[in-house]
Specification:
Layout: E1 2-10, H1 12-27, E2 32-43, H2 45-60, E3 64-68, H3 72-80, E4 89-90, H4 93-101
Parallel strand pairs: 1-2, 2-3, 3-4
Length: 106
């Protein structure tokens, strides 16, 4: 399982690094991923694309990508992009980890 803590802005510059990190981790067998957004104040469309791609990869491998500690500003972006229903979101890292390891992550 991979647990990432993001901070600041997840914009174009950082989205590429995030995508590479997630791609590499999933390719190495980390099919259950938790991303902690507690310190994030902005997510761009490139950041959303990295998250979407990783979620699809995890799902294809019968895993899960779970978000936690998502601030309202990021939740609004996910909602406006129509992605809010696509990501399991938990209020804490502990609950997100538990949900990621659970058999039924939907």
């Amino acid at each position: 399982m991979l647990v990432l803590t993001l901070a600041g802005r997840v914009g174009c510059a950082s989205a590429d690094g995030l995508r590479r990190t997630l791609d590499e981790a999933i390719a190495q067998g980390d099919r259950r991923v938790v991303i902690d957004f507690g310190l994030v104040d902005y997510v761009s469309s490139a950041g959303l694309g990295a998250l979407e791609a990783a979620a699809v990869q995890c799902a294809d491998d019968r895993g899960a990508l779970v978000l936690c500690s998502v601030p309202e500003s990021v939740r609004i972006v996910l909602d406006l992009a129509g992605l809010l229903p696509d990501f399991p979101i938990e209020p804490s890292r502990k609950r997100a980890v538990a949900r990621a390891v659970a058999r039924d992550v939907a």
